[in-house]
Design a protein that fits this description.
ATP-binding, mainly alpha, 12 strands, three-stranded parallel β-sheet, nucleotide-binding, ligase, 4 domains, Rossmann fold, Helicase, Ruva Protein, domain 3, three-stranded antiparallel β-sheet, protein biosynthesis
Length: 465
């Protein structure tokens, strides 16, 4: 059985778009779920717009998303001699021809065609010209595409798509300056890299027809096509910056965990029954091209946050902590000290609940990340009135003699509150203010357990001084 090989082939002209990230994920899932290979090719033939910085951003984005690739990253530009070699091979086989038409001649033809209401599809006069009439001048190499019949794409997502050959031109494969075109380079690279399945955006569907003609001209096996719908914004329009973040790295800086992002992107246009939340292992096992819908998917930040919250809740501490540190770096925030890391590690159990993003989790962790003397917010100050301070002053020596378990802490606080005819809820406000300097925090008992006896008592003494 042939090993499945997929690829992701972005152009390094800017950040990694979230749509590109989903395309990469679909290719990765399809290959990894079938013991296949997932390859990465950087389509850097546009030398004016391609930048090393954009390539680095793509690699960083894929690495953060957890999509590992096999082998070295392939540069399309570095393979230009191979692309030219294939163009000349097609010429030798009679499947391509030398075209001496200049850009001015082509544009003049199109202008005349527009004026006369004819098709502007350029038909080169050199297609069947006698080689004896060829001038000693620069020439492009054009594919000698079939003029009659149809080119049929059997697409795993779009179904059977038919193109009339008389609507497809003889595309340029090698320009007159000897540089290959993108349309030729893609086919040569996919063939040489052994790509069996081309999974990409449906904006490439028209390209598939012309690329199939190159495969046929070379006698190569045509890969399985799967053209996936694009991602739209919540309003149903093509996703753009007006909808919010569109670059993958922005999502890391906004504090979404990679596992939640993978889960959400997998569900964006693909379904496995009613499953919403699933693990990487399940995604690899379940993912299939038949589950991809034909309609554009809509970005939904509420669903994304919901899934991210579920993943934060189940990710082991030893995986979550490094990701939180990477988020802080991506967001340009100060790194944690070793003391803060230790405190955060102790507190994770009570921070996960209802934290949908890392900024929410970090905000809840304020009590353990802050150091004395605490800055007490205005609302929290109101909870520390004279009566409340008196009760906390009375509580402090009781806590000095307590064994530091949740049951005993609850019993001690309840006893002091009861002596003043108060319920636990009435004393929780002052305790929050004293321990965290805020009114919204994790449970006061969780904070005590995380901070430890010495730090808890020190903060109570600060608040009552």
């Amino acid at each position: 059985m042939t090993q499945i090989v997929t690829r992701f082939a972005p152009s390094p002209t800017g950040y990694l778009h979230i749509g590109g990230a989903r395309t990469a994920l679909f290719n990765w899932l399809y290959a990894r779920g079938r013991g296949g290979r997932f390859l990465l090719r950087i389509e850097d033939t546009d030398r004016e717009r391609s930048t090393p910085e954009a390539t680095d951003a793509i690699l960083r984005g894929l690495t953060w998303l957890g999509l590992d690739w096999d082998g070295d990253v392939v540069s399309q530009f570095e393979r230009r001699d191979r692309h030219a070699e294939v163009a000349h091979e097609m010429l030798a086989r009679g499947h391509a021809y030398k075209c001496y038409s200049t850009q001015e001649e082509i544009e003049a033809f199109r202008e005349a065609a527009r004026a006369e209401g004819r098709s502007t599809l350029f038909q080169s006069p050199w297609r069947d010209a006698d080689p004896a009439t060829h001038p000693d001048a620069p020439y492009a190499i054009r594919l000698k595409a079939p003029r009659d019949g149809q080119t049929i794409i059997e697409d795993q997502v779009q179904g059977t798509v038919t193109f009339r050959n008389d609507q497809l031109d003889d595309m340029v494969c090698l320009r007159s300056d000897g540089t290959p075109t993108y349309m030729l380079a893609v086919v040569v690279d996919d063939h040489d890299m052994g790509i069996t399945h081309v999974i990409r955006g449906d904006d490439h569907l028209n390209n598939a027809a012309r690329q199939t003609q190159v495969y046929n001209a070379m006698g190569w096996t045509v890969p399985v096509w799967a053209h996936i719908p694009l991602i739209h914004g919540p309003d149903g329009k093509k996703l753009s910056k007006r909808h919010g973040a569109v670059g993958l790295e922005e999502y890391q800086a906004m504090g979404y965990p990679a596992a939640g992002m993978r889960n959400y992107l997998a569900r964006l246009g693909w379904a496995h029954g009613d499953a919403e939340f699933f693990t990487d292992e399940q995604a690899r096992e379940w993912f299939d091209l038949s589950g991809i819908g034909r309609a554009p998917a809509r970005l939904d930040f509420k669903k994304l946050e919901n899934l991210c919250g579920q993943h934060i809740a189940v990710t082991p501490d030893d995986q979550l902590l490094p990701e939180i540190e990477a988020f802080l770096e991506a967001a340009g925030q100060p790194a944690l000290s070793q003391l803060q890391k230790d405190g955060l590690a102790r507190a994770l159990y009570c921070l996960r609940e209802r934290s949908k993003t890392f900024p929410e989790l970090i905000d809840k962790a304020h009590f353990v990340l802050a150091s004395r003397p605490l800055v007490i917010e205005e609302k929290a100050q109101a909870a520390l009135d004279t009566v409340s301070r008196g009760i906390l002053h009375e509580l402090t020596p009781q806590l000095q003699n307590a064994s530091w378990s949740r049951d005993e802490l609850e019993a001690v606080v309840a006893a002091v509150a009861g002596a003043h005819g108060l319920g636990l809820g009435k004393i929780a406000g002052p305790l929050r203010a004293a321990l965290a300097g805020r009114t919204v925090t994790p449970s006061v008992f969780d904070m005590m357990l995380v901070l430890g006896q010495e730090e808890t008592i020190a903060r109570l003494m600060d608040a009552t001084a």
